[in-house]
Amino acid sequence: MVIYFHLGVVILAFLDLLPTTVANADIQVACGNNSVSVTWRISAELVPFATRLFLGSCMRSQQKTLPTGEVDVLFNYRFTKCKFKKLIKGKRLIYSNELTYRPYDKSKPAAFVYPIQCVYIRPEGWNSPFLNPGEGFSDGRGSLVFHMALLNEQLTGIAMTNVIPLGSFLPIWASVEQASHQPLLLLMEECVAATTPELQPESQVYPIISNKGCLLESLNGNAVFLPRYDSSAIVLYMQSFKFGLGDEVYIHCKLAVWDPEGLDESKKACHYVKEDGRWDLLDDPSQSSLCSCCDSTCESRSKREARWESNSLRHNYVLGPLIIVDPSDSETLNP
């Protein structure tokens, strides 16, 4: 699709400018007995790109917004995680890793690298836990924090205005703070536009996503899910529509988290590729057959899903108000 190539140019042009900003960030490292805590302070403009910051193979544990608008991105992990490297030098035991910023796909090198190292005196009779193949830990599912925001047209940060000219694009970013959870896949199950911040039975709505992850707007309009940089965030990129033109519009979405390895007809992100006349699965095109139900009704008979559903890992989010205006209305565009 044309949108892929055009958008890719915009993203790469901006991302080339980011390493300098990231490199100037404040990074603090605190070594514990069996773990490390890293705090990476970034500007508010970089928040949508926090999903591209890594400690080794691990993404952030959580993030905290400061009164200044800056954000502390936190990494709290044991040395048995994140592919830490262990080195014994004399009486010293050294655990090392790298803090990286990866704006591009996995095949390309990181744009910014910061070394992380914790040095200890090696205890007498110490044996490495890495020698035990059964060593490890698994954290349970506690509270999750969801985010949703409108990005600017260049995808360089949060939009500075809620006034959108008709025909321009609406990049909607959603993410979940996973803390120390197992990796989770963030999905948009349902999204509709409405002219009210609360949905009522009589509310008029404009369907965007339905049928458990089918992007209807890609079939009827111009929309796509952008490629992910990690599983905890997703970007819906769509053209603004006439629904609610001139009025306040609210985007109501049902967000859900799921096992990245457990995609099925009810847990997916599918968009329609008009050039090929078929539905594509965002996270694994080889399994795009899961999207075939988008033309009918998507259901799941998985017992595993039923057990997962009992944990209610869903969140309803309302984004807005947005005001879509006719570009010829210069008074509205330039109040």
TrEMBL record:
Keywords: Disulfide bond, Signal. GO terms for cellular component: extracellular matrix. Residues 1-23 form the signal peptide. Transmembrane segments: none annotated. One of its GO terms (biological process) is positive regulation of acrosome reaction. One of its GO terms (molecular function) is acrosin binding. The keyword Disulfide bond applies. Residues 30-277 form the ZP domain. SMART domains: ZP (SM00241). This is ZP domain-containing protein. It comes from Anabas testudineus.
